[in-house]
């Protein structure tokens, strides 16, 4: 039976130590990129005080080890490549604590109409849907993926009008 990783929590006397929070944040960042709000929550879950976690995140942002702009661009690129749309991606980034202007800048770099069409083709094939029930099914799929009505209309063909 595989062993479970033990969750590391800050010792009570180190919970307010900003340098220990910084070390824990760097350990987290060495595994993957985080948004500033997401990293702050993660540090708080590990038992660090709100002030220590905020100070560590602010220090890392000043030294550019933590960059919300870079995080949002990487997040958009990765999830758009997986066939997710801008509505879903922006909601995820907002939940991660990324500022709205950074989200908008990262989303502006992609051609979402083409990505919606590619996601539809990957899932349903190159042939355009002919019946209305099939168009509705494909539209629901694209809507679940986070594409807007304009993107869905382009992906399905010009004669489709979602409710």
Average the pLDDT over all residues and give the rounded result. Answer: 88
Please report which band the strand proportion falls in: under 5%, 5-15%, 15-25%, 25-35%, 35-45% or over 45%: under 5%
Distance between the termini: 51 Å
Assigned CATH class of the largest domain? Mainly Alpha
Describe this structure in words.
The structure is a single chain. The protein has 163 residues and is mainly α. The chain has 3 domains: 51 residues, Orthogonal Bundle (Arc Repressor Mutant, subunit A); 40 residues, Orthogonal Bundle (Arc Repressor Mutant, subunit A); 45 residues, Orthogonal Bundle (Arc Repressor Mutant, subunit A). It has 9 helices and no strands.
Keywords:
163 residues; 3 domains; mainly alpha; Arc Repressor Mutant, subunit A
Task: Explain the layout of strands and helices.
Blueprint: H1 18-29, H2 36-45, H3 50-62, H4 68-81, H5 86-95, H6 100-107, H7 112-124, H8 132-145, H9 149-156
Helix pairs in contact: 1-3, 2-3, 4-5, 4-6, 5-6, 7-9, 8-9
What does this entry show, briefly?
By secondary structure, this protein is mostly helical. 63% of the residues lie in helices and 0% in strands. The chain has three domains: 12-62, Arc Repressor Mutant, subunit A (Orthogonal Bundle); 68-107, Arc Repressor Mutant, subunit A (Orthogonal Bundle); 112-156, Arc Repressor Mutant, subunit A (Orthogonal Bundle), CATH 1.10.10.
């Amino acid at each position: 039976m595989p062993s479970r990783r033990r969750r590391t929590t800050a010792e009570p006397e180190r919970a307010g130590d900003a340098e220990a929070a910084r070390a824990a944040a760097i350990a987290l960042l060495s595994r993957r990129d985080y948004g500033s709000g997401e990293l702050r929550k993660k540090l708080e879950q590990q038992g660090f005080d709100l002030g220590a976690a905020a100070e560590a995140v602010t220090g890392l942002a000043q030294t550019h080890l933590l960059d919300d702009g870079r995080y949002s661009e990487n997040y958009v690129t990765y999830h758009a490549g997986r066939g997710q749309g801008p509505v879903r991606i922006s909601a995820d980034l907002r939940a991660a604590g990324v500022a709205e202007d950074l989200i908008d800048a990262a989303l502006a770099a992609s051609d979402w109409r083409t990505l919606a069409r590619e996601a539809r083709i990957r899932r349903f094939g190159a042939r355009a849907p002919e019946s209305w029930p099939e168009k509705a099914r494909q539209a629901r799929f694209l809507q679940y993926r986070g594409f807007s009505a304009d993107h869905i209309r382009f992906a399905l063909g010009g004669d489709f009008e979602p409710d």
